[in-house]
Each structure stands twice: as C-alpha cells, then as structure tokens.
Amino acid sequence: MEALRPQDPARIGTHTVLARLGSGGMGQVYLGRSPGGRQLAIKVIREDFADSPEALARFRREVETVRAVRSAFTANLIDASLEAPPYWLATEYVPGPTLVQAIRGRGALPAATCLRLMAALAEALAGVHEYGVMHRDLKPHNIILSAVGPKLIDFGIARGAEHTALTQVGTAPGSPGYTAPEIITRNDVTPAADVFALGATIAAAATGRPPYGEGASESVTYRVVHGEIDLDGVESELAALVRACVAADAGERPTPAEIIGRCAVSSALVDDPVYQALVGSGAAASAASVAPAEPAVPVGYVPTAMSGPAAPPMPAAPPAAPRPRTKLWLTVGAASVALGVVAALTVQSMGDDSKGGGKEARAQGDAKPSASGSPSAAGSPGPGQADKSGQDGQAGKEPSFVEATGPNRDYWSAKEGSLYGEGTCNLPTEERTPGQFQFSVADAVDSQAKVMSGKVKILFRFKYADMSRLKGPYYVSVAVKPRHEIDPGTGKPFEGLRQTNLGLGYTSKPVDIAPKGSGWGAENKELTYPDDFQSYVQGKPYAPAIPVGNDPGDWTVIFEHVKGTNEYASIGCYGFTAR
Questions:
Q1: Which of 8, 5, 59, 13 is nearest to 40 (CA)?
Q2: Angle 287-288-290 (CA atoms, 0-180°, nearest 5)?
Q3: Which of 174, 257, 368, 403 could cysteine-pair with 227, CB 3.0–4.6 Å?
Q4: Per-residue pLDDT tens digits for 249-290
Q5: At what angle do helices 111-129 and 273-281 cross, to 10 degrees?
Q6: Start-to-end Cα distance in the chain
Q7: What CA–CA distance (Å, rounded) separates 103 from 88?
Q8: Alpha-carbon gap, residue 100 to 105, rounded angstroms
Q9: What is the phi-psi region of residue 394: left when phi exceeds 0, alpha when psi lies from -120 to 50, beta otherwise?
Q10: CA distance 329 to 332
C-alpha cells in the first residue's frame, strides 16, 4: 500500500480516497471508503487515455462485465462513472495476496493444495461462463487468495459470446504462457480457452515456474503453439489433468464441471493448511514483500491489462544466455553461371567454424524449458521429447529431418527496384563453412523470372572444400518459409490474424554435400519446392509444403548445416518473391 500523493484526489464520486493500491501506464487504483464505511478498490482511467476509443471501449467492457457477473468468485461492482472524465469503477475490496505473490513468497504448492485450488477455480470459471462471459486473461496475477476462497479479477479484456473482439488484427489478447494456441493463431475465443489458462495457472502453482518458460513474448508464444508445458516434478495425477486442460485441440479439453469431478476434493480449500498459511500470514500481501521497483499492489487488487503493466514474472531458472550471431563472412551477390541459372550466388570464404555461434549457442535463449525448468540447449530434449539430436551428422548417420528448436527470425526482403530479384537477409549466418559454399534460387520453369508463381528450383554445393577439416559427411537441409504463420487446415495465413512466421517453415531432408575424392568440387544438389519439402513438429510430419501463391510476398530460404535432428546452424540465406 502506498500513501496518497499531493496530486491524488481526496474523493472520487461519493467515496473517500484512502491510499494507492497500484498504478500503471493507463490508470491508477485506489483504496477507498464508501459513505457507509465499506472498503473499495477504485480504478480510474487516466484522462489522456480517455480520449482513446479503444482504451475507453475496454474500460466500458470491464464495467459491463463486472456488473453482469455477480459471483462469489469475483470482486463485485459497487459503483461506476462512465458519463464524463474521469472514468472510474469501484469494486469490493478483497484483502489477500494474488496467486503470483503467493508463489513468489512460498514457491511451488503441494499437489493436494493445487487440486483444491484447481477445483475452486474451475467452479469460478463455470460461474462466469454461465453469464456468457469468457475471462480471457486468467493467470496467477489475476487471482486473489482471499479468506473465503479465490477471487477472479481483471476482466479488462473479457468478452461475451455475442461480442466481437476488441483486438487489433495481428495481435492476440491475453498473456504469453497462459493464452490458448487457438487464440494466438486465429483469435478463436471459447470457454475452452479459459480452461487452457486454468491448466497453465495450476502448472505455475505446482512448479513455481512459468508454465512455458521465460524469455521474449514471441519465444513463449512459440512454445505454447509448438511445444509442451513444463510439468517436471509434478505429481502424476495432477500432471495428467493439467495436460488435458492444455491440449492443443480445444475440443479435447475437459469442461470446468469435468475438472471438478477429476479433482475429487473432499474438503474445502480454505481448510487446507497451506492455503491458510498463504492467506493468514500476510507475508505475500504486505508492502514489505513487494520489490521497490514494482507498483505497490500489496492488498489484493491488481490493475487490469488496460490500466497497468503485468506483474513481474515468477522466479524460474536463471536467464539464458543471449543469442549470439557470428560475424558475417564474405558474401558476394552475382549472376550464377557455374550453376547454370540466373539467380543470386553466395560464396563463403574458408575458415575455422569452431568459434562460430551456431544454433547451439543461439537456441539457449529461445529453446523451450527442459525437464529441470532450464532452457535446454539445442539438441537436448525438453519434457516429453525424445533425444533425436545427438551427433548424427558427425557420426555419419544421415538425419532424416530437421525441426525448429525455437523461434527463427531469419527473414529475406526483396530489394526495391531490383532487375534480378535480389534482396537481403536481416541476420548474418551462424556458422562458417569449411569451403566455398554456393547456392541459387530460381523459378523452376523460367530461371530469369523475378517473381515466383509456381515451383522453385534450389541448387547448392561446395565448389572448394578443405578435406583436412572435412573428415566426414556434411549434411545440409534447406528451409523455405513464408512470411506469415500458416493455418495447416487451409494452407494459407490465418484468416484475419496475419502473424509473422517464427518457425523454420518447410524443410528438406538433409543431404550430404561433402566432396567425394579430391575435394576440388562437389556435384550440385537440386531440390524443388514444394515437392521436396515438409514441416515437422515434435518429431512428426506436421503439414505438407504449400504453393508459394498461398502467401504472396517475400519468402526466405535458409541453408542449414545439420548435425542432428535438433542441432543445426545456418550457413546461407536467400529468398524470393511470390505472387
């Protein structure tokens, strides 16, 4: 709790303002007292944001939602003012720590406590859903542990079944790690999305770690869509129920009623000794427990997403190493005569790749959490993932495929006004090659075409190679990625939500390009897109390559040196424009 400042109002409406509960970029929350002496949490939207139609619409939506949902599991609306600035709403004040504060103070909760908490929250969701409302931002930050049970707060982005989303194209509501994959990919909001968030929330409570690891929001979001939840160390029955709640297919998730049945609780949550300690100790709810840099939210009310920043992340493994990129070595653009096509030719000088960063180094910052909760290095399996990497390429065993170990941010952009379809990649390569590596990308029918409309021919080889350093096979896979995330059901970008593609796209089977014999040169390897390409997720074919015309614009072609299924590093990058 924080004392009032000179600029703070003494009264809001008919209510006396007592203290600050929390502040953020879009608003302020005060502790207030009604004329009859009832304590309130009063949220005020800043006047400059009151002029924003979207911000005001979100605030009005929250007031409407809290007014409509009269539940024992929510902080009920007491008063509001929406007619003229300053806009505000007042809800009942609920003392107690938020779940994220409790986890920060205690760490992981016992399985029995988590099952009781899960049953209570499922009952809360069932009550909210009965009003035709989805919360859409359920997470430990938005759950107050009160003396009478958990309370749901922050309905700033809640949505009724009959309403359209208040979300701009290209964005998704909710918080990374707790937002269901169907919302991320196509903004499909149903009650099952709240069930996903419930599962992720209980995973956080049971492990004391973020459910899909830490890192940039893009990295966490990628793991939600393509990875697995971190449940290492969680009791098997609870882990199975959480996995059911976070199933990729929304239709396979249990309903809140089914969750309550599977929890099979025989006593009240408020009688649980761990819960009593969390609520009664006051440690998590005291001002002393809040770090100085954080907004003071000690007494159980957290600003909504529109009114302030999200609470700091829960403690987890130490921060991963940054993603280094090796120096961009000699790269020359020219017309390809040696390979017999008119395209861009890239040649890399000979050098020692032992000091290159490679994806082994880069993936540490973006890989999904390992079973211990720490980011797994490239080539190391995460929870529930078989070890498919090893050193296959080094040992002479040909890897059968490659798949993404984390977000990929390589993008090629066409050069405006180019006569030959040249362009540039935004990131340098990750590894030096042991020889001059050549490649070309061209239309399969018209090698001089600037824009691809059909199949694409990709050629690559070593022209010269240092055989003293190349003692075995050298496997290369080509990744061809459209600019946008693709809906596997339609083979086109997700309708109304064009998200940047953070995957590898579609990859070819790795092929050995090590020169045979003197090392003077190797034969050309030829691939045709889309015929020779496929995408893989968790070791299984995910979707066939799509026609280039399904996503018009700039596509990226990445040449990867492959040592194992999940261990690779880029040695070349180019692209093409599709129509």
A1: 13
A2: 70
A3: 368
A4: 999 999 999 999 999 999 999 999 999 999 974 433 333 333
A5: 80
A6: 58
A7: 30
A8: 9
A9: alpha
A10: 10
The token pair at 470 is 């190349």
Q: Can you list the alpha helix ranges (DSSP code H) found in 169-304?
A: 181-186, 191-207, 217-226, 236-245, 256-263, 273-281
Residue 76 is encoded by which pair of tokens?
Answer: 């009920």
DSSP state of 166: -
Q: Name the residue with tokens 């409790």.
A: 102
Token couple for 400 = 């059968």
User: 458: helix, coil or strand?
Assistant: strand
Q: Partners of 335 in the beta sheet? A: 344
> How confident is the model over 455-505, as pLDDT tens digits?
999 999 887 665 566 778 899 999 999 999 888 888 998 876 677 888 899
Residue 89: phi and psi, rounded to 5, are: -140, 150
In this structure, are residues 393 and 564 in contact, taking their beta carbons and an 8 Å threshold?
yes
462 — phi, psi (to 5°)?
-90, 125
Q: Is the dihedral of CA 102, 105, 106, 108 positive or negative?
A: positive
Strand-pair category, 506-507 with 475-481: antiparallel
- Domains in the chain with CATH codes: 11-92 (3.30.200.20), 99-287 (1.10.510.10), 353-378+386-578 (2.60.40.1930)
Q: How many whole angstroms separate alpha carbon 276 and alpha carbon 147?
A: 8
Spatial neighbors of 273 by CB under 8 A, at least 6 apart, are none
Position of tokens 């209510």? 15
Distance CA(288)–CA(279), nearest Å, equals 16
By CB atoms closer than 10 A (0-12, 13-18, 19+), residue 419 is exposed
Closest C-alpha to 100, from 297, 356, 371, 304: 297
195 contacts: CB under 8 Å, gap ≥ 6:
125, 245, 253, 254, 255, 256, 259
Which residues are known to be catalytic?
137
Handedness of CA 176, 566, 498, 320 (dihedral sign): positive
For residue 556, the tally of other CB atoms under 10 A from its CB is 24
Task: Give me the amino acid identity at 199.
Answer: G
pLDDT, one tens digit per residue, over 96-140 is 899 999 999 999 999 999 999 999 999 999 988 887 778 888 999
Q: Is 91 exposed, middle or buried (0-12, 13-18, 19+ CB in 10 A)?
A: buried
CA dihedral sign, ordered 36, 39, 41, 46: positive
Phi, psi of 375, deg, nearest 5: -60, 130
Query: DSSP code of 271?
Result: G
- Where the chain has pLDDT below 70, the residues are 23-26, 48-51, 54, 155-174, 281-396, 419-420, 464-469, 496-497, 517-522
Residue 183 CA to residue 179 CA, distance in Å, equals 7
Q: Report which DSSP code applies to 120.
A: H
Q: Would you give the DSSP letter of residue 578? A: E
Contact between 212 and 227 (Cβ < 8 Å): yes
Q: What is the pLDDT of residues 363-382, one digit of tens each?
A: 333 333 333 333 333 333 33
Q: Measured between alpha carbons, how far is 140 from 146 in angstroms, rounded to an integer?
A: 13
Residue pair 312/294 in contact (Cβ under 8 Å)? The answer is yes
Rounded Cα gap, residues 156 and 49, in angstroms: 15
- The model's pLDDT over 172-181, given as tens digits with 9 standing for 90+, comes to 456 889 999 9
